[in-house]
Amino acid sequence: MKRIAIYPGSFDPVTNGHVDIVRRGTALFDEIIVAILHNPSKTALFTLDERLDMLKETMKDIPGVSFDTFGGLLVDYACERGAQAILRGMRAVSDFEYEFQLALMNRKLNREIQTVFLMTGLRWIFTSSSIIKEAAQFGGDVSELVPPMVNRKIIEKYRRNRK
Ligand code: PNS
């Protein structure tokens, strides 16, 4: 049986921490589907298409990875795609409560789907898409925290938004 995992998220935008989790996840799964939640009620910096393009570009050298968007319940989407697991990165104690809630709710909704956590690499432990956007918005250098293409897009986006 092919071991398939969904790696879900907002990816607004993708960070080096995300790329690291997917890279390491490929040692555990035959296929990882990186899936962006389409949530019309949440305003994102990047459009769904922009986020998808950035994911594809930054992970194009990782074998066994595909990309998609989804709406509705994650466990339903996982079933639809024939996945047995949800892959999530865990940074620190601050992530634990939310991740624990999410994993338990998903388990309540569908006991067949397992949540697998990988600890975020130490280099990326203090980063998140939100904190990166916050720093970049005020001109902070985030080039070591995101793939080069994403860094360019962030700079472009905030420059355009300022005009
Ligand atoms: O990158 P994020 O924002 O931490 O990712 C959160 C995500 C997409 C994993 C979560 O919001 C999600 O799975 N949403 C879909 C709806 C759902 O199934 N929620 C969990 C059970 S209520």
Word description of this protein:
The protein has 163 residues and is an alpha/beta fold. Helix content is 42%, strand content 19%. The chain has helices at 16-25, 48-58, 74-80, 93-109, 129-137, 148-162, and strands spanning 4-9, 31-37, 65-70, 85-90, 114-119. Strands 3-2-1-4-5 form a 5-stranded parallel beta sheet, sandwiched between helices. The mean pLDDT is 96. 4'-phosphopantetheine binds next to strand 1 and helix 4.
List the helices and strands and how they pair.
Blueprint: E1 4-9, H1 16-25, E2 31-37, H2 48-58, E3 65-70, H3 74-80, E4 85-90, H4 93-109, E5 114-119, H5 129-137, H6 148-162
The structure holds 4'-phosphopantetheine.
